[in-house]
Write a structure and sequence with these properties.
single chain, two-stranded antiparallel sheet
């Protein structure tokens, strides 16, 4: 939002331009005539419509829009053009359905504003659209690509041809290939010595005890093992 001082500076610059004022007259309570064109007042929040201010601020560039919105800030009137929602020209942000977003983002809180609808016939709207697209094509044709000049002056570099010579051969017609040890078909046994586990049973030389006891008792002796090399 501009400060009061900035608004005054803009007002002085506007006066220095000596831009011709528009001819604005009120035809009826709901219609205005601006430079011979009819506008209908769709909204007039807080009696924002001011004939003298509109005549001072209106510019010819606003003739191509379907709606003209004016809002007040620091006693200064600002005009903004919008297209109809079904218009085949303009961006989405320039459609009248984005008016609430525009007022929230750019207008002062609770500021007075008005909306004027530009009354046109279908033929006038078609002529406006054709004029818009003609201007767009002219602007696109006047813009040159950035790299067109640099590409034209840059010399064409020829690619060097690399001659591929066949590998040197000896006797055989086919070149020898270096066989990698990792891809050898022969399998080598890298295992070390192998061992067998043999159970060793201990023999007892003691005489069995007398059978005076009725119950037979058994003693579980642990097995002993020894590791012998295979082939022994």
């Amino acid at each position: 939002m501009l400060s009061r001082k900035k608004q005054e500076e803009l007002k002085e610059k506007r006066a220095e331009l000596n831009y011709p004022k528009a001819e604005v007259t009120r035809i009826s309570p709901e219609q205005l005539s601006i430079n011979g064109q009819i506008f209908t007042i769709k909204e007039n929040f807080n009696e924002a419509v001011n004939i003298e201010a509109i005549a001072d601020r209106y510019m010819d560039i606003l003739d191509s829009y379907d709606f003209v919105v004016g809002d007040w800030s620091y006693e200064q009137l600002r005009l903004k053009g919008f297209y109809a929602d079904d218009a085949k020209i303009g961006s989405l942000e320039q459609k009248i359905k984005h008016l609430p977003d525009y007022l929230i983002e750019y207008a002062s809180f609770g500021a007075a504003y008005f909306v004027l609808a530009h009354e046109r016939t279908p033929a006038e709207i078609q002529a406006r659209n054709e004029s818009f697209w003609d201007n767009q094509r002219k602007e696109n044709a006047s813009v040159k690509p950035r790299n067109s000049r640099s590409n034209a002056t840059k010399p064409v570099q020829k690619k060097k041809q690399v001659s591929r010579k066949p590998a040197a051969t000896t006797g055989d017609s086919k070149p020898k290939r270096n066989k990698s040890p990792h891809f050898s078909k022969k399998k080598t046994n890298n295992r070390g010595k192998t061992f067998n586990i043999v159970e060793v049973k201990e023999t007892s030389t003691k005489q069995p005890a007398s059978r005076s006891v009725k119950k037979k008792s058994t003693v579980n002796k642990p097995h002993a093992f020894s590791i012998r090399e295979k082939g022994e």
